[in-house]
Amino acid sequence: MKLRADRAQFAEAIAWATRTVGTRVTLPALSGVLLEAVDGELICRATDLEVSATVTVPVQIDRPGKVLLPGRLLAQLVARFPDQPVEIDASSDRVEITCGRASFRVRAMSAEDFPTLATPADDAPTGTLKADAFARLVAQVARAASSDEGRPVLTGVHLDASEGTLTAAATDSYRLAVRSLAWEDAIDGSALVPARSLQEAAKAASEVGGTVQVVIEDGQVSFRFEGRVLTTKLIEGSFPNFRALLPDAHETSVVVNRAELVEALQRVSIVAMGQANTPVTLTFEDGQVDLQATNQETGDAAEALRAEVDGPGLSIAFNPTFLLAGLEATGTPSIRIELRDGLKPAVLRPQADEDEVTDDLTYLLMPMRVS
Predict the structure, then answer these.
(1) Phi, psi (5° rounding) for residue 68?
(2) Nearest Cα to 60, choosing from 84, 30, 87?
(3) For residue 117, what are the contacts with CB-CB under 8 A and spacing of at least 6?
(4) Of 20-29, 177-186, 272-281, 355-364, highest mean pLDDT
(5) In a shared domain, residues 136 and 239
(6) Contacts of 30 (CB under 8 A, 6+ apart)
(7) Half-sphere exposure in the Cβ direction for 26 (13 Å, CA)
(8) Which of the residues 176, 274, 294, 328 could staple to 364 if both were Cys, CB 3.0 to 4.6 A apart?
């Protein structure tokens, strides 16, 4: 194999392929990136057997072929190459990589050991979303997924496609994020996707733009972008019936400026630093919200903000990190908080200003008990 590639395109392709797959590989070949030059294109493939990434870039090919090179080493090299075309000559087990005055000889790995990647079927139903809308949906919902591998079902994001709408949901049992988005081209199906894989798909959507095609199949889901395909295995198991967790009524509704609440919460929660699970208590009454945190080691903090309170006043305590995540997810200048009492889950929603359309987002947060 011998080819000539644009450095920026090549570096971006290798960086994406190598970051998409995991670092804890079980076979030496899985630490490599398979490069295949054919028909004027360089196809870069990487996998950890759970997630597979394929990215294609245009190149000048003198001699077609394929070679498997160490992924991390290759990514580090091309990231530091000068802004000159990259030339690769894989005529022996020592692959020569040249860029400007820089020249390297890298030992090739056995391409025969690289596994066949999972790819979406040609006739599989495919849905289409705007890339920026898809990336936003993932950013809003995936933050609520659990990082506890002991409960694998909760480390995923549940995708439910039906009636022209894609609904994504994630929960770590302390909070629940649900967001719905209309398809451009709709499909039906459901999938429990690892949150990490979905976040990588969202990064690609943000970088590439345009549209993203979603292919939901038995045991896997694929995301297609311009020149890129990410396929991931699904998580086995049943996702909780999240719709049954959403309250159908509330006693108190509060509208507050989101940025002001975020800043106040960040200041008040400083006293919780160094002491795990220190809650911040919010008291809603008389046109304002009072924030308070107490730490026996560092002291107390309190701040008051103006708020529109509709309904009886009450106090409720939250994990400040989880509350901040919910406030960041909404993204609107104002947010609405719906409450029943101090011991039942609260619901955060984007608050629309006049003539404004907001995201169909629900962020449910369990309160903390305080003595």
Answers:
(1) -110, 120
(2) 87
(3) 45, 47, 52, 54, 231
(4) 177-186
(5) yes
(6) 21, 47, 48, 49, 114, 115
(7) 4
(8) 176
Q: What pLDDT was estimated at residue 23?
A: 63
In a domain, 119, yes or no: no
Cα–Cα distance measured from residue 326 to residue 347, given in angstroms and rounded to the nearest whole number: 9
pLDDT of residue 229: 95
Domain limit, last residue, from 113, 143, 165: 113
Question: What's the pLDDT band for 144 if we cut at 50, 70, 90?
Answer: very high
Would the pLDDT of 87 be above 60? yes
Around 110, how many Cα atoms within 13 Å sit in the side-chain half-sphere? 6
Cα(192)–Cα(238) distance, integer angstroms: 8
Report the CATH number at residue 327. 3.10.150.10
Task: Output the pTM of the full model.
Answer: 0.91
The CA distance from 219 to 96, in Å, is: 39
Rounded-to-integer distance, Cα 71 and Cα 86, Å: 16
Is pLDDT at 220 greater than 90 in this prediction? yes
List the structure tokens of 89. 């000559």
Quick: pLDDT tens for 330-368: 989 999 999 999 899 999 999 987 667 778 999 999 999
Q: Identify whether 160 is part of a domain.
A: yes
